Amino acid sequence: MLYLIGTGLYYLNDLPLRAIDVISSCSEVFIERYTNLNDITFIEKLKKITGKNIEVIGREEVESSFITDKAVDKDIALLIPGDPLAATTHFSLVEECYQKNIAVKIIHASSIFSAVGETGLSIYKFGGTTSIPIYTENFHPESFFDTIEKNINCDYHTLVLLEVRDEKNFVKPIEAMKILKTIEEKNNKNIIKWDSVIVLSQLGSDSQTIKIINEKDINNIKPPCAVIIPGKLNQNELEAIEFIRKSSGTA
């Protein structure tokens, strides 16, 4: 049996209660940190609560048969930041289990895809989600802009996730803003309403921030981060944006 368990947005505080008994009963327990950050302190606390060793694994183990091979004859738990199936990479584990005739149980948890409702923007009006990866000298993709443009043309909002590898190596909102502005200018487009773009940081935690993007103060925002590029706003959403703007000190 393979258990895919979401840890939620706020680590131990968001971990579903029923997950504790499952983790305690499994032969081996793993946690991945490459799709998002998981606080090391949380891992140590969970070890004490469940009495289980929890091994941190990366992309290579998750995207290989490492986990499913173990689940053939043992109960294995894989802890995943947010909701376990929010990232498409984890559904491949479900498919692999079906192919190997391994039972799979999903324990869902809070996710940024529902938490964005805290901005006041309607969840029903979000189009496709996209992400901006960490740029390197020879890696400057722009395909995420196509998703943003398509959503805007349909009056949809866009959730843009910003890649994070660790606490020091991540896409900062100010960098994302510069990348998007550069793409706009290069293609002679002016489709993003910059005075309404929302920055999200550590959403769901006690230190979360929800702000209108501002070049002066978004350098110090901590990961994980995301930005929301609004599409067409209804009256309620306009009022929500205005509230965020005032609380951000950008009114």
Written description of the protein model:
- There is one protein chain.
- The chain has helices spanning 17-25, 40-50, 59-62, 66-70, 91-99, 112-115, 143-153, 173-186, 235-248; strands at 2-6, 28-32, 54-57, 76-80, 104-107, 130-132, 158-162, 198-201, 209-212, 225-229.
- Helix 2 (40-50) links the parallel strand 2 (28-32) and strand 3 (54-57).
- The chain has 2 domains: 2-110, Tetrapyrrole methylase, N-terminal domain (Cobalt-precorrin-4 Transmethylase, domain 1, 3-Layer(aba) Sandwich); 113-248, Methyltransferase, Cobalt-precorrin-4 Transmethylase, Domain 2 (2-Layer Sandwich), CATH 3.30.950.
- The model has no long low-confidence stretch (mean pLDDT 90).
- The strands form 2 sheets. A 5-stranded parallel sheet has the order 3-2-4-1-5.
- The longest helix has 14 residues, at 173-186.
- The protein has 9 helices and 10 strands.
- By secondary structure, the chain is of the alpha/beta class.
**Which stretches are poorly predicted, pLDDT < 50 over at least 5 residues?**
none
Helical residues, percent? 25-40%
Query: Mind telling me the CATH class of the largest domain?
Result: Alpha Beta
User: How would you write the strand order of the largest sheet?
Assistant: 3-2-4-1-5
Largest sheet report: 5 strands, parallel
Query: What percent strand?
Result: 15-25%
Count of all domains: 2
